[in-house]
Design goal:
The chain is 19% helix and 34% strand. The longest helix has 17 residues, at 182-198. Strand 6 (108-128) and strand 7 form a beta hairpin. With 229 residues, the chain is α/β, with parallel strands linked by helices. Strands 1, 2, 3, 4, 5, 6, 7 and 8 form an eight-stranded mixed beta sheet that branches.
Length: 229
């Protein structure tokens, strides 16, 4: 194998496994009533074993190419879980209906197209108490189209899930990396690309929201004071 790699000039590729992080985006859980939403397969040129990025040595050369098995399918599975977490009832389809309408029994149909799916980890020359310094950037960008029973597009938009390591400094405070593995960083970006959709105002406006019971006012412990004149 080493001889083959040397002759071809290729670096050995590493397959990374991704996972959806439920409820990763605050405010995405149980916000909709259980409307049925059809989910056809995610489209985009990201099928099969797809090279999503690389790990780079300090001199900028590729150290390890990173591969994900069928990113479109991986994202579609995460989308279905995310819709269910938000309170909807997703119905997985084998194909996108030719007329663009949801199948019988479904209230909506949500199409998704992967536009970017990548992660890059770059090592630096400096050493820290936590090991060799690195930066890492993961990005998942998706185009969504939501249609009603008539097949009319009622929401269309792009969502980007982004994860940068280490986090950007705030003032003089510097943060250490939260994730060190490309698989975890890309899983975070994947989960954000799903969860942020649930917070889109235009998307929420088209779906039945759960009613939120008003919060009871606390019982006052003393008589209210008169306002200042």
């Amino acid at each position: 194998m080493a001889l083959v790699l040397a002759l071809t000039g290729c670096e050995p590729r590493t397959h990374i496994d991704l996972h959806y992080l439920p409820n990763f985006v605050p405010g995405e859980q149980n916000i909709f009533r259980p409307a049925k939403i059809a989910v056809p397969p995610t489209t985009g040129n990201f099928s099969g074993d797809y090279e999503v990025g690389s790990i780079y040595a300090p001199d900028g050369t590729v150290q390890t190419p990173l591969v994900v098995a069928d990113p479109a399918r991986t994202f579609n599975d995460a989308l279905i879980k995310g819709l269910a977490d938000a309170g909807l009832v997703p119905v997985a389809l084998d194909a996108n209906p030719a007329d663009g309408k949801p199948p019988e029994g479904a209230d909506f149909i949500l199409a998704s197209e992967l536009e970017q799916f990548e992660v890059h980890k770059r090592f630096g020359a400096n050493q820290t108490i936590h090991g060799q310094y690195f930066t890492m950037h993961a990005l998942v960008r998706v185009k969504y189209d939501l249609r009603n029973r008539d097949g009319a597009v009622i929401y269309s938009g792009e969502i980007s899930g982004i994860e940068n390591e280490p986090p950007l400094p705030v003032g003089t405070e510097v943060f250490f990396p939260l994730e060190t593995e490309p698989a975890e960083s890309l899983s975070v970006a994947l989960s954000r690309a799903v969860g942020l959709l649930m917070l889109e105002p235009e998307f929420r406006d088209e779906l039945p929201m759960r009613s939120i019971a008003p919060t009871a006012s606390p019982t006052p412990t003393h008589a209210p004071q008169s306002p200042h004149p």
